[in-house]
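Researcher: Go.
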Amino acid sequence: MNISTKPIRMLVVEDHVGLAENLFEYFDNTHYVLDFAPDGLTALHLIATREYDVIVLDVMLPGLSGFEICHRIRHDIQCTTPVIMMTAKDQLKDKEEGFRAGADDYLVKPFDLRELQLRVNALYRRKEGMGKTTGIEVPGIRFDPGKLTVQVDHNGSLELSGTMARIFEALIKAYPGFLSYEQLQERIWGEKEVDMNTLRTHVYTLRKLLQDTFGFSMIKTMHGRGYRLTPPAQAGQ
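Model: Structure:
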């Protein structure tokens, strides 16, 4: 497995000792370096003082929930490190809450450790690729892949995080064309057969955030086909 010349630094936030031990045993090789936090406060301290490539975060934790921890990672610490949430909660509303908090991926327990490894590797590759391209512009909109910011002419800017930033980058790169559901899934998660509800939840959350910030959603649904970016001049079309 030739992922990178340097190990992937992971923080595992999990209060179940048995599962944490299984993760440490599975990832015990030269490709990964793991830290462990049994609760939210410990996790937030480590994230604020150390640098990680991927954070694996349980939802059901003593004290602060994983949702609240993820929100604080994004808004208080201003950390953009990819977050995978682990939980037994498999309802769409739970996934939506996780994505709204800033999670990049959502893994429902029980899961195969190999699947977690594939998702960790995919998030790491995308993290390494972020910020290596210059600003991307379409009429009235500019996206900075390094700062993960969207700017609209004479209408301010917005900082995105995680999966929402990758979705926006994929759509602005495809402009004036559109991306099919399968193309977008493959560019975001590296595979075509992702749960459609997961994609729809991410797009819904991103669209609402853009609407609240700029007054228009920027993302048009091509019914039965996919999504495309809509610049300000085309917002009413």
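Model: The two ends are 48 Å apart (CA to CA).
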